[in-house]
């Protein structure tokens, strides 16, 4: 068992699922905190053995790459916010960010938890169009992130990707830079049960694969659950670091 300290963003210790809800609740607390839903299942996964510990499936996926194997967690922060740029507006709300060490050196792992919730309400193109021409900073943020992650402005391929995956990966890299880590990992932690909407689960699967293919520039690639792909090096920008290796992967837990 890989024990780890869990705290909220203010430094309060979290020693149970109940304290997770008390000290680091999801944005829509009463709506999201239910058995079978991602927010509560994520918390339960980190307290499966009574004491706070890194879930076995996370340790397993970390061992699939030479640089990320032998992972030892130091601290995990649920609901950690990350500033993506200098524009006004909401920051990235990570479901959990974890700091630790692995074979390749200091590492930051950002986790996006999912049941059958979509990767955000819109694809990047539709979200961009909805905000274009308004006073919103969203179009500027999207263009900034597209250039930082893909090295080019918004185009037809990027328009079809999910915005949540774009800023989730960017946040993992930004957190790694701020912590002076030598590598970053972005993991989708999926919690599956018969009660889920199968159509939404399949949509999430396709959206995730589409994003990975665009990121690694291989349109025939399929990333299997329980594995990482990388390292990937992005062009970077003012906030997103360049030349910092990032891995992306997915794990699925059957409830």
Helix/strand-derived category reads alpha/beta
Report low-confidence residues grouped into runs of 5 or more: none
Radius of gyration: 17 Å
Task: Tell me the strand order in the biggest sheet.
Answer: 1-2-3-4-5-7-6
Distance between the termini: 20 Å
> So what's the overall shape?
globular
- The tally of helices reads 9
Mean pLDDT figure: 95
**Residue share in helices?**
25-40%
What's the topology here?
Blueprint (H helix, E strand, L loop, with lengths): L4 E2 L10 H7 L5 H4 L5 H8 L10 H7 L9 E11 L9 E11 L2 E10 L9 H8 L6 H13 L5 H4 L3 H16 L4 E10 L5 H19 L10 E6 L13 E9 L1
Parallel strand pairs: 1-2, 4-5, 5-7
Antiparallel strand pairs: 2-3, 3-4, 6-7
Helix pairs in contact: 6-8
Descriptive report:
The chain is of the alpha/beta class and 255 residues long. The chain has one domain. It is 34% helix and 23% strand. The protein has helices at 17-23, 29-32, 38-45, 56-62, 124-131, 138-150, 156-159, 163-178, 198-216; strands spanning 5-6, 72-82, 92-102, 105-114, 183-192, 227-232, 246-254. Strands 1-2-3-4-5-7-6 form a seven-stranded mixed β-sheet, sandwiched between helices. Strand 3 and strand 4 (105-114) form a beta hairpin. Helix 6 packs across helix 8 (163-178). The longest helix is centred in the last third of the chain and has 19 residues, at 198-216. The protein is globular, with a radius of gyration of 17 Å. The model has no long low-confidence stretch (mean pLDDT 95).
């Amino acid at each position: 068992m890989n024990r780890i300290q869990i705290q909220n963003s203010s430094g309060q210790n979290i020693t149970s699922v109940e304290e997770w809800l008390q000290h680091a609740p999801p944005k829509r607390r009463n709506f999201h905190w239910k058995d079978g839903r991602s927010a509560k299942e994520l918390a339960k996964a980190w307290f499966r053995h009574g004491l706070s510990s890194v879930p076995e499936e996370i340790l397993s996926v970390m061992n699939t790459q030479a640089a990320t194997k032998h992972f030892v967690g130091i601290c995990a922060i649920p609901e950690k916010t990350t500033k993506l740029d200098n524009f006004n507006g909401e920051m990235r709300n990570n479901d959990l960010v974890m700091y630790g060490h692995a074979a390749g050196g200091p590492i930051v792992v950002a986790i996006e938890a999912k049941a059958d919730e979509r990767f955000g309400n819109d694809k990047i193109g539709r979200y961009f169009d909805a905000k274009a021409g308004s006073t919103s900073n969203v179009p500027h943020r999207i263009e900034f992130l597209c250039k930082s992650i893909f090295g080019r402005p918004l185009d037809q391929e990027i328009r079809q990707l999910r915005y949540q995956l774009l800023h989730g990966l960017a946040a993992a890299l930004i957190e790694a830079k701020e912590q002076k880590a030598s590598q970053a990992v972005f993991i989708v932690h999926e919690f599956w049960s018969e009660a889920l909407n199968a159509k939404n689960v399949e949509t999430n699967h396709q959206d995730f694969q589409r994003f990975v293919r665009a990121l690694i520039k291989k349109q025939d690639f399929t990333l299997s659950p329980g594995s990482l792909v990388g390292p990937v090096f992005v062009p970077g920008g003012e906030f997103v670091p360049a030349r910092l290796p990032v891995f992306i992967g997915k794990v699925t837990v059957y409830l």
